[in-house]
């Protein structure tokens, strides 16, 4: 199986190679087979990307917003028309089942392009009445924005970052995760086909050092990262050192709170979605599932029964519901946490092993895993695992569960399941998390802002909030009388 692109980087509307960059081997996580061989960017490649973005951005910013939107809209249509082929590419790159990539990856990027294509025409500054004189504000682009992506939703992340950046009149240089470098190149081709002027969306490959070089480049005005808290802190420090704008979409250890009056099947469905989708490699996953004591045993029994039916297997088979993890390091990390959970005294209610699957000997699979009897101090309840490992904890009352849900340095997401709606709003109102759900979990339509509180991040993606983070305010005072001067 090959998915070799024409070259490693996409700059100024065309593919570019520089064999001097470090080798970057791309493998299919289901088999370990190499599907592409690329090179990380050299300083020369980075300078080419920066120079073309610098050249292209001012004219782009001068276009009428609806004209920029029209191009994004065309790109969104192409993404949808090519969804099947892009989903296959994403499955090969990430190992996620095609059943998921068909609906959650290129399709989500297309949603973002479509949304910002329309929204930008209505995104304006304000008029401020000063009783005679007045002022107005302009929303102006930042200039060159850098996007740095994680490996779990590669084209979605590239779309979520580039759509608001471009709609607002910026240029973007995007560095995908070195684990999943392919689909951002496809997005760049699509932008060109849709009529985006050359240089406005450049893709450069590489490891963390390439991200760091971009984040500290003097020509760059903003950096937006999706990744771990540790990476976010490093990039934010670099951006701060140069007074650049920054958006940080980082990790979490989010709570799902299930009260005893919740609809049992819906709560279990939400908890499973929030732990096993994408083999658990989702930043907003609700990996601490708090269940009220009266419901606890019934919940666990039915949860295990349902989780047993999850179909692991060939990611390209449309019937497969769970694929492998993205790479060996992540596979080992997750298995390590399963051992930690056992040694900490949690009860392994399901899974915990590497399944053997015919034809996928090199595959990085892990069974859906459920721990019960988990306590707040266990490492599996405190640290982000980023794999298919759910921790179930029990609680007695509302005040207690709010305090325990908030007892974490993270604050990305939270969910509450209950039929008592006043209670649902009361509880969500007190949980310190940026993205919350009531009687649902992990749905992230582009119309709603997405992002974290506390160490889970700064800034928001999607919705009009993202346009705010890809623009800056200029205030203009207008005098309508004489200048009153004491001199
Ligand atoms: P990493 O934090 O390891 O990497 C994220 C990106 O940053 C990669 O492109 C990486 O490059 C790059 N990078 C690494 N070091 C630096 C540096 N010093 N300067 C600049 N860039 C750097 O995350 P993963 O890709 O491993 O993804 C998993 C993590 O991301 C999880 O913790 C998860 O919670 C989080 N995540 C958060 C999301 C959110 O929206 N909040 C969404 C998805 C994931 P390279 O990979 O090439 O080293």
Give an overview of the whole structure.
With 487 residues, this protein is of the alpha/beta class. Helix content is 39%, strand content 19%. The strands form five sheets. The protein has a seven-stranded mixed sheet with strand order 14-15-16-13-12-17-18, sandwiched between helices. The chain has a six-stranded mixed sheet with strand order 9-8-7-10-11-19, sandwiched between helices. Strand 12, helix 10 (264-276) and strand 13 (288-292) form a beta-alpha-beta unit. The chain starts with 8 loop residues before the first strand and ends in a 9-residue tail after the last strand. The relative contact order is 0.14. It binds NADPH dihydro-nicotinamide-adenine-dinucleotide phosphate. NADPH dihydro-nicotinamide-adenine-dinucleotide phosphate (NDP) is lined by residues 148-152, 175, 177-179, 207-208, 211-212, 215, 225-228, 231, 234-235, 249-251, 283, 384, 386, 412, 457.
């Amino acid at each position: 199986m090959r998915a070799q692109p024409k070259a490693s980087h996409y700059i100024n509307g065309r593919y570019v190679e520089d064999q001097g960059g470090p080798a970057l081997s791309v493998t299919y996580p289901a088999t370990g087979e190499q599907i592409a061989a690329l090179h990380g960017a050299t300083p020369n490649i980075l300078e080419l990307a920066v120079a073309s973005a610098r050249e292209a951005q001012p004219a782009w910013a001068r276009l009428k917003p609806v004209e920029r939107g029209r191009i994004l809209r065309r790109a969104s249509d192409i993404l949808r028309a090519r969804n099947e082929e892009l989903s296959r590419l994403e499955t090969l790159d990430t190992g996620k089942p095609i059943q998921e990539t068909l609906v959650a990856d290129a399709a989500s990027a297309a949603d973002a392009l479509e949304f910002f294509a329309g929204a930008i025409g209505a995104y304006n500054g304000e008029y401020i009445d000063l009783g005679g004189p007045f002022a107005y504000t302009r929303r102006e682009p930042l200039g060159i924005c850098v996007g740095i992506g994680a490996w779990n939703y590669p084209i979605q992340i590239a779309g979520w970052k580039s759509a608001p950046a471009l709609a607002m009149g910026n240029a973007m240089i995007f560095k995908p995760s070195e684990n999943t470098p392919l689909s951002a190149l496809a997005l760049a081709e699509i932008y060109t086909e849709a009529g985006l002027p050359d240089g406005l969306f450049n893709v450069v490959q590489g490891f963390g050092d390439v991200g760091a070089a971009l984040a500290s480049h003097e020509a760059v005005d903003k950096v937006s990262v999706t990744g771990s808290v540790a990476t976010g802190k490093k990039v934010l420090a670099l951006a701060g050192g140069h007074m650049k704008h920054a958006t940080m979409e980082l990790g979490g250890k989010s709570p799902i709170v299930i009260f005893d009056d919740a609809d049992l099947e819906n709560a279990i469905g939400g908890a499973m979605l929030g732990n096993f989708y994408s083999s658990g490699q989702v930043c907003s996953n609700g990996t601490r599932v708090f269940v009220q004591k009266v419901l606890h045993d019934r919940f666990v029994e039915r949860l295990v029964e349902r989780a047993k039916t999850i179909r692991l297997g060939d990611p390209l088979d449309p019937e497969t519901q769970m694929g492998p993890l993205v790479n060996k390091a992540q596979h080992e990390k997750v298995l390590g946490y399963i051992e930690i959970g056992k040694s900490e005294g949690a009860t392994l209610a399901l899974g915990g092993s590497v399944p053997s699957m015919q034809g996928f000997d090199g595959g990085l699979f892990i069974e859906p895993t459920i721990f019960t009897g988990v306590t707040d101090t266990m490492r599996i309840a405190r640290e982000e695992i980023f794999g298919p490992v759910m921790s179930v904890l029990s609680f007695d009352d509302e005040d207690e569960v709010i305090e325990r849900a908030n007892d974490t340095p993270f604050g990305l997401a939270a969910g509450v399941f209950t039929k008592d709606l006043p209670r649902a709003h009361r509880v969500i109102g007190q949980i310190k998390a940026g993205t919350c759900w009531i009687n649902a979990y992990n749905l992230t339509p582009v119309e709603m802002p997405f992002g974290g509180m506390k160490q889970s991040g700064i800034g928001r993606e999607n919705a009009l909030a993202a346009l705010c983070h890809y623009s800056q305010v200029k205030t203009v005072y207008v005098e309508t009388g004489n200048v009153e001067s004491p001199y």
